[in-house]
Amino acid sequence: MNDLTAPNKAAEILPQKPPETGMFISLGPQHPSTHGVLRVAITADGEMVTSAQPDIGYLHRATEKLAEKRTYPQIIVLTDRLDYLAAMTNNWAYCLAVEKMMSTPIPERADYLRIIVGELQRIASHCVFLGTYGIDIGAYTPFLVAFGRERERILDLFEEICGARLTYNYIRIGGVMADAPDGWEAKVRDFVKEMWGHLKEYDTLLTYNPIFMDRTKNIGTMTSEMAIAWGVTGPNLRATGFKADVRKDDAYSLYPKMQFDIPVGKQGDCWERYWVRVQEMRESLKMIDQALDQIKPGETMAKLPKYFRVPAGEGYGHLEAPRGDLGFYIISDGTPSPYRMHIRPPSFINLQALQQLLKGWKVADVIAILGSIDIVLGEVDR
Amino acid sequence: MTSAELLAAVQAKFPDVVEIPKTAGQVRGDELYLAVAPAKIAEVCRFIRLDPSLSFDFLSFLTSIDWKTHFEVVYYFVSTLHHHKLVFKVKVDDRINPEIPSVTPIWPAADWQEREVFDLMGIRFSGHYNMRRILLPDDWEGFPLRKDYVAKPDRYD
């Protein structure tokens, strides 16, 4: 990481003008494998990709501008709509930033509930990745299993705790919206027990499936230096063999009390990016179990006035979302709404590495590489 | 390195870089905030990236603020080697034609983030290889995140 020649390399790896010759392929914006509305302008020399330029912005909703007109609690619903596959962690990241600026202490039970729903959300989000990545590669069954069965179970649990299945607005400034209903914790425990078996099933269905491995092993490799230079975070960075996780490096909430490992890959190819996510689901299950062991009855919301103001100043709160390092940088001028709010979106920053990542690989590998980055266009375009 | 050591290391090379102290009543993280002159930013960034004791190899995010009288560009750096953090703030006074040097040749991570700042705030980054709009259509008029931006009503309003 302290490779001092890296900046010069960085200048070299920046994409140059697309070559005049060769074939031009426009992938998307409506394509089943782009997971939303994303267009990638690709030039190819024969079967080899010579340049790739993602074209984004189809889903831009000006979240940062909208936030300037709303009060602090009203912004939580906007964060739901960024990474809509992991709305819980979005709520949480935003609340972390605001709580940091107000120095609000969070009740212990609320923190444990946040860890439980946050880790369940990570599993649900990785289940979507598993299912859709399988479809990208040509395996249909994992979609029915991971997306249609396990993720539904988690959404049922979320529906029971907060009433919503996709945009939760559950984690609030100072705590959580409501305590878990009676018997909810036992249901989560049942799910965790069941999920360990399902993970073994995924290994036989997809992880060690020879056809899947042929399509993804040694494809789209990324070095740690390259990932760090492009600002890549989350499972994509860990797959390169670099141990980095906000939950350990810049611990928030009660994560210092949790025992868990950071799974890392070796060479950062598509298969390892997939494998790291499956391992992360195992670590999440461990953490949910520990949180359920340690959680005690108590308050779930800090004592905050109904209309509060955030002291003038600035603050940055970030956490490990399923797709990487998600952060909120907020500037307050003491009025009920923020003066400026900036989102550090992991998907947006991970996606820009695609410009270099696709270069030199076959056209047939483009979908495998694009799918393995695991982007959500709602977060890319904001 | 602690904040005081970081400040000393940067100031030894660039004496005109000053610390931005916390204002009264403000709660902000333990990061060190430094004010850097716009003309110097590329040079200072190259130094903090290359210096072995600093080695800020990770540009976490880059953003901009419109303070009505001037713009401010904010850089948030992390060193994955030493695990220390640093925030740079660059004041851009020219509101008509704001421009500062790009850091994309040092961190490719700045590539799209600088384009986003240009797209929404209208600050140009000189030396960027591909300075054009990224989220909005190419023919969009104005820069929406500026405080004096007036949204044109469309057929949905």
Give a description of the structure.
The complex is a heterodimer of chains A (382) and B (157). By secondary structure, chain A is of the alpha+beta class. Chain A has one domain: Cytochrome-c3 Hydrogenase, chain B. Helices cover 48% and strands 12% of the residues of chain A. Chain A has 16 helices and eight strands. Chain A has helices at residues 6-13, 63-67, 72-80, 87-102, 108-137, 141-162, 184-207, 210-216, 224-229, 235-238, 246-249, 270-294, 346-352, 354-357, 366-373, 377-381, and strands at residues 23-27, 39-45, 48-55, 171-172, 175-176, 313-321, 324-332, 340-344. In chain A, the strands form three sheets. Chain A has a three-stranded antiparallel sheet with strand order 1-2-3. Chain A has a three-stranded antiparallel sheet with strand order 6-7-8. A two-stranded antiparallel ribbon of chain A has the order 4-5. In chain A, α3 (72-80) runs antiparallel to α4 (87-102), α4 runs antiparallel to α5 (108-137) and α7 runs antiparallel to α12 (270-294). Chain A is globular and about 65 Å long. Chain A starts with 5 loop residues before the first helix and ends with a helix. Helices cover 21% and strands 24% of the residues of chain B. In chain B, strands 1-2-5-4-3 form a five-stranded mixed sheet, with helices on one face. A two-stranded parallel sheet of chain B has the order 6-7. By secondary structure, chain B is an alpha/beta fold. Chain B has a domain at 3-108: Beta Polymerase, domain 2 (2-Layer Sandwich), CATH 3.30.460. Chain B has helices spanning 3-13, 41-50, 110-121; strands spanning 18-19, 32-36, 58-66, 71-78, 85-92, 99-101, 124-126. The mean pLDDT of chain B is 86.
